[in-house]
């Protein structure tokens, strides 16, 4: 069965020309050639017969002549000539006889037989006279004449046969070729013409000269072209619908873009977008206006070209810091920066500078730079501080007079007082004292904010200072039946700071603890040296704080809303001042609290270290930085806000930083950048931290990279690295369990084992404290929520080999927030390599974020 449509036409386009070429160009010429050759052969045969008959006739005449000559001259030579003539006659006779056998010609054969019979009859006679030869000659002449007539009859056919041969050889093949080409062209045109028409229609459709409704109908075509026409119509309709949709979307996007551009142009902040190569892709008028330019002056210009011109407009003291900060931002694509600089020209301004990378679907497209004019806010803060300072100074004079006069009256030197008078004066004296304290606190806060409060930098022995303060507060504690105790280790190193301000902070914390601790309660002051820092903790068994109160505790004038705070009273400035003092002295302050159980306020101060003369000179000349070589770190975390906070804090401490939020990016950056160490958190929900470590160890390019595991938790307005992590290889599980330190008592807190059953049994055999802490087995991380629930585990022993740590991260984050004041030890068991360490070793205590560089430096050295 022949195929249909174009396929059939293509098939016929090959077959028909081939048939024409075979039949008209080959078979017909062969037939005509054979037909013409037949007549040519007949003509040649009769021509040959005429020649032989003529020779036969001459031979017969030669025999007769030789006979006459012999009879006349009796010469034997004539007999020999006669014999030769007879031989020729016989030979031609045989040839003619053979010719008639091949070419039947009855009339000629009869004439030849008659002539031959006449010759034989004459030749047998004894007396062969010339008169007797006359019948022979006549018969021979008659035969010759008939043969010539037969040859002449075939001669026109011979000419015609030659013409036919020429026609068969030339004209028929040429005609067949032309016919085949015509047939092929006709079939090809029947295929190409619809396609050309289709192409022309598509081009017109592309030029929008016609629409899908104007497309010609496919008609009755049932071939592939017809199907193509139908497909084109469907496609054109679909394209038209999509064009309409896209035009609507494009218009909506254009409207949104115009609105965004209008918003961007109307915003009071200067906004610019830099490409990855550092060219200005977008600049709003406010940004250019800060520098006295137009947006067109900056667009498409490189920052390398325009940067010096822009920096020249800053104040002299801010030009170099701004240049260094901008260079750091442009070099590190992950860096987030926030600084304050001052412009000198064209108008003096104080600008808040912010810069962060901009990504689209994970691809970096550039960096945004935002400049906010904070001149008014800065001036308002300055005026506010000056006003508070002025008012406080002005209020102190009358308050001093009032306080003195009230004290004089209470001394009864002017005269004896009645009980009511003494009561009223006593209340007045208490109010004056509280107002004086408030004014003093406002003055201190004003000076701290305006950098007007000078801090001494001298060695301070905090142990004796704490003993003195505790003795001062003991009377107040006994009056409320509160036990106030102090714990100071022997040989406590000194700190570098201001004795009076440290005493102010410690006095404030002890006073608050006594205020908010009920009768028969306890207040404990602990001092300890931990990792080059002095840690002071003031713990109480008071009312405690909720998580909401803890987040606002260090805000100005904030006081928790409960009956105790309303009864005790206060300004809400003491903790704000304490935080400012501690931070100015290079420390951090935070609170740990549980409602109804108590609170612990803690702060750190840097310990004093004896330095050589060369170190003091170098420190005087060089900027402050972390001890040891400047390290290059790769930070990894699934929360961008945490990355920004880590980046900012560690860069301020002299570290060089890059960041990654996904494992693939972390692996690529590790191979390309070769950092000194990677900081990886185990509690992530976006990726498996332990699988990332295994991938690092299996790649020859990264197998020797130092990896530091860290746990970061919020403490008030800051962060710290907690001592809740431990690592162990499977073969060292027994010693790791023996070395774990936990909070006691822990009778009701379970030990959770996450891993296969064999792993659980191994831990069960090694665990020696089952009677105090029951073991709870979870086969996988997904079972943690269902089995552990609201419980607070004492220890979580986690087999990293066959688990997905992402489920662990989903469980750990709410668990740590729910039990923020409880210490949970996480023991991770697996093969991590010798260069995988904990940033904070188990049992080493918490490390504030703004003091993390030293800890990181020590951890890298230990891993190397």
Structure, explained:
The protein has five domains: 5-189; 267-373, PAS domain (Beta-Lactamase), CATH 3.30.450; 378-449, Helix Hairpins, CATH 1.10.287; 458-613, 2-Layer Sandwich (Heat Shock Protein 90), CATH 3.30.565; 628-863, Rossmann fold (3-Layer(aba) Sandwich), CATH 3.40.50. Helices cover 56% and strands 16% of the residues. It contains 25 helices and 25 strands. The chain is rod-shaped and about 220 Å long. Residues 562-569 and 611-627 have low confidence and may be disordered.
Shape descriptor: rod-shaped
Number of DSSP-assigned strands: 25
Fill in the CATH topology of the largest domain: Rossmann fold
List the strand order in the largest sheet. 2-1-5-4-3
Please describe the structure with a list of short key phrases separated by commas or semicolons.
25 strands, alpha/beta, 864 residues, five-stranded antiparallel β-sheet, Beta-Lactamase, 25 helices, single chain, 5 domains, Helix Hairpins, five-stranded mixed β-sheet, 56% helix
Question: What is the fold's blueprint, element by element?
Answer:
Elements: H1 5-73, H2 76-102, H3 106-124, H4 130-206, H5 224-266, E1 270-274, E2 280-283, H6 285-290, H7 295-298, H8 303-311, H9 316-331, E3 337-343, E4 349-360, E5 363-373, H10 375-410, H11 419-449, E6 458-460, H12 462-479, E7 483-487, E8 495-497, H13 499-515, E9 522-529, E10 533-540, H14 547-552, H15 563-568, H16 574-584, E11 589-594, E12 598-606, H17 613-621, E13 632-636, H18 640-652, E14 656-660, H19 663-673, E15 677-680, H20 689-698, E16 706-709, E17 712-715, E18 718-721, E19 725-728, H21 733-739, E20 751-754, H22 757-766, E21 775-778, H23 784-788, E22 795-799, H24 805-818, E23 825-829, E24 836-838, E25 847-848, H25 852-863
Parallel strand pairs: 7-9, 13-14, 13-15, 15-16, 16-24, 19-23, 20-21, 20-22, 22-23
Antiparallel strand pairs: 1-2, 1-5, 3-4, 4-5, 6-8, 9-10, 10-12, 11-12, 17-18, 18-25
